Amino acid sequence: MLHVTSLTKRFGNKSAVDNATFKVAKPAMIGIIGRSGAGKSTLLRMLNRLSDATEGSITFEGAEITTLKGAARREWQSRCAMIFQQFNLVPRMDVVSNVLHGTLNSRSTLSTMFNLYPTSDIHRAIEILDRLGIAGEAPKRAQALSGGQQQRVAIARALMQDPQIILADEPIASLDPMNAQIVMDALRRIHEEDGRMVIANLHTLDTARRYCDRVIGMRDGRIVFDGTPEQLTTGAARDIYGADASFSEESTSTSIETLDRGTKRALREAEAAV
Ligand SMILES: Nc1ncnc2c1ncn2[C@@H]1O[C@H](COP(=O)(O)OP(=O)(O)O)[C@@H](O)[C@H]1O
Ligand SMILES: [Mg+2]
């Protein structure tokens, strides 16, 4: 389905992504992990064609992606929607309009200029928001929502394009534990129920282990691990994050696990109190 072959991106003489090769045979939920600067964002940006590859090839269902131009490139970008750590919503615009922005590629300049959306699109936007549990926020300005709600609006905007692939660059890095869990649960559900491929850069091991079918580990631009969560042992993680770093599972652990531990502790304490 998706073939990435010897993909390289150089900035000057530095390779941000260095000869990356992997294949995805069927829609999966894939986590990309690695230290800051490992090349995770650059890889996603090349997949989405926000950034051009220096060398190498990306094919999707047999078609070469790296050379697409103009309308064909934009069409590809709507087939693989991207969501970001900072949500990238229009803060002062209401939630529904933010979601309807996801149809921009397929609309005329004139209807865009006058904010004219077909009623069917508005209904669909509300349905998607409802599916994500935030239909009630539809008329509010995006800036009035919590971070977790805003990220769900961004996911709704992505779904509006009906993409085959969702690329998520550190989607939970700015969120508190509970919202991080809600957003990851939403991405997992979208993968399972709709059969969409999800590729998410994640800054922590435990989230990748918990939500993904497959984990790709990057270090200095190279793919140094590609396997199942079960294969991602502490030793493998040490290779990805670097043996020199005072590596510990704890230090790369997200707040989701912390939340679980906290919740478990609270439950124990509650039980003890009875
Ligand atoms: N536009 C750019 N110009 C120059 N260097 C860049 C640019 N984007 C990323 N890099 C460099 O490429 C490397 C990989 O960056 P990035 O893909 O953002 O890593 P990650 O997302 O894993 O933190 C880093 O060394 C970064 O400084
Ligand atoms: Mg990054």
TrEMBL record:
Q: What is the lineage of its organism?
A: Bacteria, Pseudomonadati, Pseudomonadota, Alphaproteobacteria, Rhodobacterales
State any GO CC term.
Answer: membrane
Write the protein's name.
Answer: Phosphonate ABC transporter ATP-binding protein
Q: Where is the ABC transporter domain?
A: 2-245
InterPro entries this protein is in? AAA+_ATPase, ABC_transporter-like_ATP-bd, ABC_transporter-like_CS, ABC_transpr_PhnC, MetN_ABC_transporter-like, P-loop_NTPase
Q: Which organism is it from?
A: Roseovarius gahaiensis
A Pfam cross-reference name: ABC_tran
Query: Is Membrane one of the keywords UniProt gives this record?
Result: yes
Spell out the PANTHER family in the cross-references.
AMINO ACID IMPORT ATP-BINDING PROTEIN, PHOSPHONATES IMPORT ATP-BINDING PROTEIN PHNC
Q: Name one GO molecular function term.
A: ABC-type phosphonate transporter activity
Keywords on record: ATP-binding, Cell inner membrane, Cell membrane, Membrane, Nucleotide-binding, Translocase, Transport
